[in-house]
Amino acid sequence: MIRVLFVCLGNICRSPLAEAIFTQKVKAAGMQAQFKSDSAGTSDFHIGELPDERTIKCAAKYNLPLKHRGRQVNRTDFRDFEYILAMDDNNLRNLNNLKARYGFEDKEIYLMRDFVTETQGMPVPDPYYGGEEGFEEIYQILDEALDSFLAQVKATHHLYA
């Protein structure tokens, strides 16, 4: 089983939406047995909280179930997940600092949009301080990035539905 962790700052906007989109794509491909996913934040701002109301609304628009409570990245995540995907450079930096502190220096951390050639190095913008249109924008960004990510993982691991 391939385990994938999506990480943003507070774990109430981008990362739970990424997890929900990914879960839907895996299910549509008939590959639920091959994947497990979760999401977490690098901060402790929203531990135990439900996703942002705008995230919930955006997910509902696309029939994405959200079954998540905010949590913070911890040491076991670096051991348990093959793929850890950061939403932006700040979270990537935080994750790289954590992996060094926890003794997982060799663990590769990926930037979410690096799986789409045209957007490599670009962040998934944080919609928290904006309106609902920001959540629609990140949905579109994540949808495209996750198609590319899933295709690459399937090819790398020789997975077939």
Note down, in words, how this protein is organized.
The chain is of the alpha/beta class and 161 residues long. It has one domain: 3-Layer(aba) Sandwich (Rossmann fold), CATH 3.40.50. 43% of the residues lie in helices and 13% in strands. It has five helices and four strands. Helix 1 links the parallel strand 1 (2-8) and strand 2. Helix 1 (14-28) runs parallel beside helix 2 (53-61) and helix 1 (14-28) packs across helix 5 (132-156). The radius of gyration is 15 Å and the shape is globular.
- Tell me, briefly, the overall form: globular
SS-based structural class? alpha/beta
- Give the tally of β-strands: 4
**N-C termini distance:** 14 Å
Query: Which stretches are poorly predicted, pLDDT < 50 over at least 5 residues?
Result: none
Sequence of strands across the biggest β-sheet: 2-1-3-4
What would the average pLDDT be, to the nearest integer?
96
Please summarize the sheet with the most strands.
4 strands, parallel
Compressed to H and E, one letter per element, the order equals: EHEHHEHEH
Total number of helices: 5
The level of helicity is 40-55%
Instruction: Tell me the CATH architecture.
Output: 3-Layer(aba) Sandwich
